[in-house]
Amino acid sequence: MEIGRLGVWSFIDALSAPETAAFARRLEEWGYSALWIPEAVGRNALVSSCWLLANTRRLIVATGIANIYARDPMAMAAAQLSLAEQSGGRFLLGLGVSHAPLVEGVRGHAYSRRPVATMREYLAAMRKLVYAAPQPTEAPKTVLAALGPKMIALGASDADGIHPYNVTPRHTAEARALLGPEKWLCVEQAVILETDPDRARSVARSMLRTYLPLENYRNSWLREGFTEEDLAGEGSDRFIDAVIAWGDEAALRARIQAHWDAGADHVCIQALNPDGSQLPDETALARLAPHGH
What global pTM score does this model have? Predict the structure, then answer.
């Protein structure tokens, strides 16, 4: 698998199934190498991956991320092999431990307070899979949702790399140093094609409102040098501007380049809609597309 330099990360649950297929085909036509989809309280990410892979020809479909509490290791590993084989090697499995409110409050499972050990054990159990169906032509790749140094190290030792979310180029540089040169560093970057500071920051704060209370993200931002004051309320302007890129096309491209310069192999952009809707901003995606539109 060649992951490519630039992909798209997008919530697609606001779209119908035919609309998601058309969206994926547009991204493929525009030259993006991958579409990353999350898993929270909407569609099953692996089912959606199957649909998107069946409706595209070249696009890599990646989970950003598939929740390890949503299925046991054998089910996850079997799905990974099945999707890789059925798509000719275009499925990339991103795994994550998610967050206590989603795991306990929504799914009703006990959330482990040892996330790194839990992920290590899960990956080990995946490797024990007994699988009687045809194998894909090459072993499929797995990346881990990783923010802290211990999970990043696990991505280096037990997986093919990591997929950080809501991070700055500083985090990317530090993650590359921990990962070493060979493992994939696939970084999500939210962008807003909006030059008015008040409107852009309003959209950014609306997006980050979900993540600010979550311990995993707060700890990551504090490690990056933000203060409790930065994270208070809906976040300081300094914090908002560092995590979410906004401005004209040149400003958005500069942030993407900053991640590449810091060591990212792949940047997947989440184009937040300036109108505040849950739909991806296809104007921004078309402007930033590798093929140029």
Answer: 0.96
